[in-house]
Specification:
heterodimer; A: four-stranded antiparallel beta sheet; two-stranded antiparallel sheet; 2 helices; B: about 375 residues; alpha+beta; Poly(a)-polymerase, middle domain; Beta Polymerase, domain 2; about 45% helix; about 15% strand
């Protein structure tokens, strides 16, 4: 938590019932809008990220296509960025949230914005198998 | 808000990308090279009635100075060729007629020939125009000046295409036009990276002009935009900075001018490139300069990437804008994948900022 406060001072963090909860604004590039995010982390579980404002949206020109690289991609308005392949080792509990998950949210949001513009996910990643949506 | 004009600023990266996307495709250029050489050969070869005038052929205009822009949609671009005949023929229309007759004697050329005011145009529909400009030496001591026939005047005009190219390239690349050969091929096609900031600035001015005026006859001539940009070039460090600086200086010049702005040919001051302007078309040019500058300042301070993208597409066209964003995304991804992307309070950047971290690569998951 100290590291998050140091690096990302605009996030407000508190611990509620053993869960770290951080809320605050994220502007993915100097030319981007500002999003409000919520990070939740409980030791032993994987960190959860939600974009609380504005809600993630599908492309207006292709409303049938889900947002790439999200959890709950079929539940519109409930999508959450999927930042790493579970079990891939990208994230481990001994890694610092401030140096991994939080900057990854910035990166994910840039690629989300570029996906809106180009219709193409340019941020790399692994596709879910069909039907294994979480 | 101050406009961030640095190399890594979002808008500068995108303008770089748009400029790359409006370069002439190599295939189109190779095709033009082939046709240029064939026409040059047909005009000058032994056995041609023009051969006795010891003809020289060389390119002029944007192809010579590296500022040609990929045509929009089904538009065509210009390849300009000067056919210099070593003669003192007095009758301008006679010289024009000799060249026209030689082109008409070729079955293909005869079918696509169009007589213009000063040149003879071969119309390769859907691709480009090959404009053949007949000329004779002006015998001006120490200069490259020529006489070219003008159908309206039924007489000669002085012109200096080599002198102009040399002036422009001297500013753009710090070197004078190097070619002295009598008959020259088209110059090698350069990529956007090999081009100077001035050349790329001219290309963006031309593309914005093409979209803004959309084929309207009030559209300012390329040579006017090119000359103004070169005259005001001050070695700014980035494409965005050069473009904004050019527009600001032209705007200041407009403000200082009581009447309609003159754009004299720097190598031939009695020639005004802007002599076609009247009150109305000049007023539209003034609005074009003002609007373009305002658009860039607005874009540079915008905090909504999708709005910026929409606006850029309106300014330069959808295809080059989309290409620029894809390239921007790929570049960020390459950096991120190598752990060389910076993320700080000001967001994601290819340049490190205060307190920025370089997060390790990660693998987004999910369809």
């Amino acid at each position: 938590m100290a590291q998050i406060r140091l690096r990302w001072p605009h996030l407000t963090c508190q611990i509620r019932n053993g869960t770290l909860v951080c809320d605050g604004p994220v502007q993915p590039t100097a030319a981007s809008r500002t999003y409000t995010i919520r990070l939740q982390y409980r030791v032993g579980l994987e960190p959860r990220i939600r974009i609380t404002k504005p809600r993630l949206e599908r492309r207006t020109s292709a409303p049938d296509q889900p947002i790439p690289h999200t959890y709950d991609s079929t539940r519109q308005g409930r999508e959450r960025p999927c930042l790493f392949f579970p079990g891939s080792g990208d994230w481990r509990s001994d890694k610092s949230l401030a140096a991994t998950v939080i900057p990854w949210v910035y990166e994910w949001l840039v690629f989300y914005e570029l996906w809106h513009i180009t219709g193409e996910w340019l941020g790399g990643g692994i596709e879910h198998d069909q039907g294994s949506d979480k | 808000m101050r406009l961030d004009q640095t190399t890594d600023s979002h808008l500068n990266l995108l303008l770089d990308g748009i400029c790359r996307a409006i370069q002439l495709p190599a295939s189109l250029y190779e095709d033009a090279e082939g046709k240029y050489e064939a026409v040059a050969d047909w005009l000058a070869r032994a056995g041609s009635p023009l051969a006795r005038f010891d003809p020289a052929v060389f390119p002029q205009g944007s192809v010579r100075i590296g500022t040609t822009v990929r045509p929009r949609g089904r538009d065509e671009y210009d390849v300009d060729l000067v056919l210099l005949l070593n003669t003192v023929i007095d009758d301008a229309m006679h010289l024009y007629g000799l060249v026209r007759d030689r082109l008409l004697a070729h079955r293909t050329y005869a079918g696509i020939l169009e007589e213009k005011k000063r040149c003879l145009r071969l119309n390769y529909a859907g691709q480009f125009h090959l404009d053949v400009l007949p000329a004779r030496p002006a015998f001006w001591p120490g200069s490259t000046r020529l006489y070219v026939p003008d159908k309206q005047l039924r007489g000669w005009l002085v012109s200096d295409p080599k002198g102009y190219a040399s002036w422009f390239l001297g500013i753009a690349e710090g070197e004078r036009d190097r070619t002295l050969a009598k008959t020259e091929p088209l110059p090698e096609l350069k990529s956007a990276e090999e081009k100077s900031l001035l050349q790329r600035t001219v290309q963006l001015l031309k593309r914005r002009r093409d979209v803004y005026f959309d084929g309207d006859e009030d559209s300012p001539a390329s040579v006017v935009l090119t000359t103004l940009a070169a005259r005001h070039y001050r070695n700014q460090p980035t494409l965005l900075a050069t473009l904004v600086d050019t527009l600001e200086l032209v705007w200041a010049e407009i403000q200082r001018t009581q009447d309609i702005l003159a754009v004299p040919n720097p190598t031939l001051p009695q020639e005004d490139f802007a002599d076609a302007w009247d009150v109305n078309s000049y007023a539209r040019f003034v609005r074009f300069v003002r609007d373009f500058r305002a658009e860039l300042v607005r874009l540079g301070s915008s905090q909504n990437m999708e709005n910026v993208a929409d606006q850029l597409a309106e300014m330069f066209g959808e295809q080059p804008t989309n290409a620029a964003y894809r390239e921007y995304g790929k570049r960020l991804q390459a950096r991120a994948g190598a752990g060389r992307l910076y993320v700080g309070l000001a967001g994601v950047s290819t340049a490190g900022g205060r307190k920025a971290v370089r997060p390790p690569p990660f693998t987004p998951y999910g369809s």
